């Protein structure tokens, strides 16, 4: 009987996510920006420093940091002025230069790629002097046009956390749009995990503390796939459909893994299965998963884990500040 119920649940999940022609058509399949950023060709052709500039697509963040570390202030400033789209998105480049390069996109913008639906990362707090750093990884339907919600979560977490904490709202991957195949599979999460890993490597190369990752909904799939490769101190998932892992051990991470799910969150109705590439696996709040489960009974909805006054925001702030 248990096997029959699991098979039936899987069939229902498959039907809900991919069985409707209208559903597929309404969401379609999203393409992430590919190829080099605009301005990369001019950057690579620039020989004014008497040396090759690091290739944005192949140089590691550590190599980028070492390159900028050998430049004079005047040389750094010239690169910002001549190649803002490259410097502004170059993981490993000094934080102040990335801010300056991305200034037209807004204050404290750490990355900005306007292609497609757009990618952006924005900082709340003093990142360059922070003792603690947090990164919020949002779920589906987040891009430049809907970024305000993620930015507000970062502001709310920063307001609750200690003064020496900086919070980064990181909409740095192409998220699923609507209900469709991308929401049910790990395709976009795999690309997102690569981008998140490189981003956190860039924080490390810039001399910043190991971050705590706060991963909402589909963002927890991204964090689950990135877990073995990032130096995060903590990974906090909320409203998670699964992390594409059977348990914490399978995540292969030294990070402390935390999980929260409100009884009023609609994600609780999504079956925690993974079959034929559909679904995202075990519920991180289940007893057998091994995460530290946070109280979330007072969270009113799927998108309300950062709401002021909730037990989750209080716990998130303690984790962000290194107090839990």
TrEMBL record:
Residues 1-27 form the signal peptide. Keywords: Hydrolase, Signal. GO terms for molecular function: hydrolase activity. The keyword RNA-binding does not apply. It holds the Pfam family Abhydrolase_8. The keyword Hydrolase applies. InterPro entries: DUF1023. Residues 113-274 form the DUF1023 domain. This is Alpha/beta hydrolase. It comes from Streptomyces thinghirensis.
């Amino acid at each position: 009987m248990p096997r029959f119920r699991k098979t039936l649940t899987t069939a229902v999940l498959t039907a809900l996510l991919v069985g409707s022609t209208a559903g597929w058509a309404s969401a379609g399949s999203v393409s992430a920006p590919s190829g080099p950023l605009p301005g990369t060709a001019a950057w690579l052709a620039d020989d004014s420093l008497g040396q090759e500039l690091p290739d944005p697509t192949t140089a590691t963040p550590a190599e980028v940091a070492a390159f900028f570390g050998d430049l004079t202030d005047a040389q750094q400033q010239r690169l910002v002025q001549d190649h803002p789209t490259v410097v502004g998105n170059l993981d490993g480049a000094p934080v102040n230069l990335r801010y300056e390069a991305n200034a037209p996109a807004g204050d404290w913008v750490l990355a900005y790629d306007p292609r497609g639906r757009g990618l952006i990362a924005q900082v709340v707090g003093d990142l360059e002097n922070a003792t603690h750093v947090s990164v919020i990884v949002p779920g589906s339907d987040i891009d430049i046009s809907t970024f305000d919600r993620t930015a507000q979560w970062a502001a709310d977490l920063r307001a609750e956390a200690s003064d020496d904490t900086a919070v980064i709202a990181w909409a740095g991957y192409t998220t699923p749009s609507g209900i469709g195949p991308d929401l049910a599979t790990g395709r976009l999460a795999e690309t997102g995990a690569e981008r998140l890993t490189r981003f956190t490597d860039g924080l490390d190369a810039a001399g910043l503390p190991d971050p705590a990752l706060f991963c909402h909904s589909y963002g927890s799939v991204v964090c689950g796939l990135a877990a073995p490769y990032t130096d995060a101190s903590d990974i906090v998932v909320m409203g998670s459909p699964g992390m594409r892992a059977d348990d914490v051990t399978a995540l292969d991470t030294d990070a402390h893994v935390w999980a929260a799910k409100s009884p009023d969150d609609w994600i609780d109705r999504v079956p925690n299965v993974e079959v034929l590439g559909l679904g995202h696996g075990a519920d991180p709040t289940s007893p057998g998963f091994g995460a530290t489960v946070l109280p979330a009974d007072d969270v009113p909805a799927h998108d309300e884990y950062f709401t002021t006054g909730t037990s989750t925001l209080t716990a998130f702030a303690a984790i962000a500040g290194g107090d839990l």
